[in-house]
Design brief:
It holds the Pfam family DUF445. The chain is mainly α. The chain has 19 helices and no strands. Helix content is about 85%, strand content about 0%.
């Protein structure tokens, strides 16, 4: 609407100037007629006639010149007229090249980008009330269509390979050593020992008949069955008693387990052989089909959670709004961070806009070439026509003054 209003204002100004130029030319015609009619009685009117005649010639000449820029005067096929319509492609190429070489060059763009202080402007804009939330909402609104448009299979494979590669870069032995050290510090390794005791007790108690049968089958044929049964029961009872004794804090086997864990921690931290075995174990775990399937499922689960959070709540919006508000504060206080942002902006211009400036120029030239000829003429006349009407007015007045001067000199020296 603003553009249409501006065009309407220009068109009205152009029409006023055209009427002024035509009116001035008409006044000169009337002055010439009046001077010719009264010159016999009033000889001094010859000066007015000379002025009017020369003004008419100057006004018509400049009307022809201005009109010839945009169309053929009176529709006549006069050579070198309708200059703009006949040179539309050259005009488009010239505009495109001019913009590309004079406005999009590094020497022009980079100083301008640096003077803008993008980091400072971003800080000021984000610090204004509502802007951080507005930016967060716009960013969030762009995420679901972008995520939904992505093909799952390539993303799954990329994340799987990236995660697997990242895991392979992690040294397994030092990590295992640190984990075990944390477990030992909290006494969790003994909890694991107790779990093992409980599992063993439940296994023995739940499989006593199978144990009795196995002992009988392994016993010699000449040993009576009742002896085998009593022996089997005593073995099972002994195992259960031993397991109960191992629950005591100072049981030798319990202490031995603790010493073994400490030794394993040291071996993982310093022994090359233990570290090599840990790496082999890590590679086997990463290569396991179940682990590979889990890594591939990361994208699907991440996508599901992300889309659900974006559609059902404001948690991400609040978090992003807070992050953007915090960024505004940091940009305001941290000069180095502002310089980093300004450097990003300069590099973006240098690597994105400057290498493609010829494409921008070609785009602009193509737009001009594709314009309808009447549209191009109308746009250019609307922009420059008012100033060109001054040429007609000046031509009328200057022509009249030259004619007056010539007539005066001829009267003096004639």
């Amino acid at each position: 609407m603003a553009g249409n209003s501006d065009d309407l204002r220009r068109w009205r100004a152009l029409r006023r100037m055209r009427l002024t130029a035509v009116g001035l030319l008409f006044v000169m015609v009337l002055a010439d007629v009046a001077a010719r009619m009264g010159e016999a009685r009033y000889p001094w009117l010859s000066y007015l006639r000379a002025f009017a005649e020369a003004a008419i010639v100057g006004g018509l000449a400049d009307w022809f010149a201005v009109t010839a820029l945009f169309r053929r005067p009176l529709g006549l096929p006069i050579p070198h007229t309708a200059i703009v319509p006949r040179n539309k492609e050259r005009i488009g190429d010239a505009v495109g090249n001019f913009v590309a070489n004079n406005f999009l060059s590094p020497d022009v763009l980079l100083p301008k980008v640096r003077s803008l202080d993008v980091g400072g402007r971003l800080s000021l804009w984000l610090s204004r009330e509502g802007n951080a939330r507005f930016a967060a909402r716009r960013l969030i609104a762009a995420v679901p269509p972008l995520v939904s448009a992505m093909q799952d299979e390539p993303v799954r494979q990329m994340l799987r390979d990236a995660a697997a590669e990242r895991l392979r870069q992690v040294a397994a032995a030092p990590l295992m050593s640190r984990i075990l050290r944390i477990l030992v510090a909290g006494g969790q390794h003994l909890a694991l020992f107790d779990i093992g005791i409980t599992a063993a007790r439940e296994f023995v108690q739940g499989n006593q008949e199978q144990i009795y049968q196995a002992i009988n089958e392994k016993s010699s044929w000449w040993v009576p069955e009742w002896i085998d049964s009593r022996l089997a029961k005593r073995i099972v009872a002994g195992i259960l008693d031993t397991l109960s004794e191992m629950e005591q804090p100072l049981h030798p086997w319990r202490l031995q387990f603790q010493d073994s864990v400490e030794a394993l921690i040291e071996a993982l931290a310093h022994a090359p052989e233990a570290q090599a075995r840990a790496e082999i174990l890590k590679d086997e775990i990463i290569g396991h089909p179940e682990v590979q399937a889990y890594l591939e499922s990361l994208w699907v689960e991440t996508k599901r959670v992300l889309l659900e959070d974006l559609s059902t709540g404001n948690r991400i919006e609040r978090a992003l709004t807070g992050a953007l508000s915090g960024l505004a504060g940091r940009l305001e206080e941290d000069v180095r961070l502002r310089e980093v942002v300004n450097g990003w902006a300069a590099r973006a211009v240098l690597h994105l806009l400057v290498p493609n400036r010829q494409r921008f120029g070609a785009f602009m030239a193509g737009v001009v070439r594709n314009w309808n000829t009447d549209t191009l003429v109308g746009k250019m006349e609307l922009q420059f026509g008012r100033d060109l009407q001054y040429i007609r007015i000046n031509g009328t007045l200057v022509g009249g003054l030259v004619g007056l001067l010539v007539h005066a000199l001829s009267q003096v020296f004639g």
